[in-house]
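User: If only I could read backbone structure tokens as easily as an amino acid sequence. Those tokens are not coordinates but codes from a learned vocabulary of shapes. Could you go through the record with me and say what the backbone is doing? Here is the record:
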Amino acid sequence: MRNRIQITSLQNVQIKKVVLLRDRKGRKKLGEFVVEGTREQEKALAFDFEVTEVYFCPSLLSEKGEQLLNEVSSKDIGIYELNEPCFHKIAIRKNVDGIVFVMKSKTKSLEDFQIKKNPFLLLVEGVEKPGNLGALLRTADGAGVDGVMVIESQIDLYNPNVIRASLGCCFSLPILLCSREEAYSFCKAHKIPIYAAVLSNASVFYDTVKYGSSSGILMGSEDKGLDPYWVSHASQLIHIPMHGEADSLNVSAAGAVLLYEVSKQRFSQK
């Protein structure tokens, strides 16, 4: 196997590097991130993310993990064979098939955000929990969303919990991190109506709206909701009726309700 290096010390510089990639600052500094789970690894490879290093533990390697190891072993990359203590040190998740990828980050600008004609977008502002963002990305993929704009967020797309909760959809979907002004200007320039989920007297039930051939569903954080900026800049304010004591749904559950309503209308027209 090409470039294989054995590591048995927890103090090895490579072990310390991978641990550093758990943190956003480390990912930003090194321009790399960690991918665990063969399903997520396969998706990252399928969408042309570059592997720079592979770490595996022979005693923990699953059949699928071995297949992926053989697939990438011909590449000009570092391949590190770890004992179990070293592997458990770098792996965040349990039962990850005995293999971990380090991959190169991709930086995207507005110019790189390529969308289809008559696009269906998800806009998410101020989301605070990586797991919620990942779940929304997974739902967006299932609903046929063409692209996602993540607005004013402190979460980076390569957070391990985003990758895990999205089942790798963070690799397959066109995603842009941007400001609310950039998101609004982009949608205005491309004539994409923004339907903002806001509970107010001016909002209407989400399922009474006829969504156009181009649509952008905008959601805020569970804690703070959307910035007041959107009340005057959104095309339409919408909300989900609540019939119990709770006044709102979890953001990922609300996202599923809204996105699949738009999806139903779009696909029923084809």
Remarks:
- The longest strand covers residues 51-56.
